Amino acid sequence: MDRFEAMSLLVAVTERGSLSAAGRALQMPLATLSRKISELEALLGTRLLIRTTRKLTLTDAGVTYLAAARRIIEQVEEAEREAAGEFTIPKGELAVTAPMMFGRLHVLPVVADFLATFPEISVQLILADRNVDLVDDHVDMALRIGRLPDSSMVATKVGTLRTVTCAAPSLLADRGKPRSPDDLQGFPCVAVDTPMPSPSWRFRNPRSTAERDVTVVPRLTVTNPEAAAQAAIRGVGFARLLHYQVVDAVRRGDLEIVLDEYELEPSPVHLVHASRGQMPLKMRRFLDYAAPRLRRALDDIASPLPKLTVTKTSPDPRPIRRSLTRP
């Protein structure tokens, strides 16, 4: 019996919640997987898992053994990375995740330049508007927008992002500007459908700093922020988005930010990685390379640059003098 393999199988089963799910992920027959777990239990002389038709539950002994198994597997993986040179030479594959739109606009350019600088490192860039689990999905580093929960993750702050309310100048000229968040209840709005949609937008009282929710009834609901920004530019309604999602439209004059005195505290932006002892050089190099560049990008978004304007060339008012050549 391969004890290390059995430990790895136990970890896979508990992470996926069932023998069948682990078997599919590992491409191992269910009978084989069940037999190997049973052999491990027989070797230890104790029950690790309580199997029912609906779920798996760890016994007390199983909880203790699983924690030890994870530590052992992590130590072996770290030793393998060290033997392969990841701790002495920046090389290998790096998995990075970021929100889809921010990743496309700001992380992808950093990754492209990073790859040109470090030819022995390859990157898997996962763009997804969900929080990818770094441990379960084997991801090295994540860019997170918003407040982080307490965890064992190591976070490096690279900046902040405002949440802004904006509308097209044509809509503001037609309907007027809202003077308070409550006025939005009488204006057309554009909402983004998220995994946990809310019928209200949250604002902060500038005098008391107390937060309150304002219920809005959207005229249009879309599935991503880029579509919401485009709808707002077309005058469909007011949109509430992260500043980076509309900053170019605001600078062009296609959108105008309103109710800025009622905005919430800006959301922090972090680069996050799992705390697993010594950091491989590929991760250290990426963190050192990406953090200052992302800080500059976020500072640029926050800077109050003037609107972008198109300068039209006026015709020269002086008469055109034509030279006539006689034959």
Q: Could you characterize the architecture of this molecule?
A:
- The chain has 3 domains: 3-83, Winged helix-like DNA-binding domain superfamily/Winged helix DNA-binding domain (Arc Repressor Mutant, subunit A, Orthogonal Bundle), CATH 1.10.10.10; 92-159 and 268-302, D-Maltodextrin-Binding Protein, domain 2 (3-Layer(aba) Sandwich); 163-265, 3-Layer(aba) Sandwich (D-Maltodextrin-Binding Protein, domain 2), CATH 3.40.190.10.
- It contains 9 helices and 14 strands.
- The chain has helices at residues 3-16, 19-26, 30-44, 60-83, 100-117, 169-175, 225-233, 247-252, 281-302; strands spanning 49-51, 56-58, 92-98, 121-127, 141-145, 154-161, 163-167, 189-192, 200-204, 211-215, 220-222, 238-242, 256-258, 267-273.
- Helix 1 (3-16) packs across helix 3 and helix 5 (100-117) crosses helix 9.
- The longest helix is centred in the N-terminal third of the chain and has 24 residues, at 60-83.
- Residues 310-327 have low confidence and may be disordered.
Structural class by helix and strand composition: alpha/beta
Number of strands: 14
Low-confidence stretches: 310-327
From the 3D structure, determine the CATH topology of the largest domain.
D-Maltodextrin-Binding Protein, domain 2
> How many domain regions?
3
Biggest sheet character: 5 strands, mixed
The helical percent reads: 25-40%
Intertermini distance: 106 Å
Order of helices and strands: HHHEEHEHEEEEHEEEEHEHEEH
- Number of H- or I-type helical stretches: 9
Radius of gyration: 28 Å
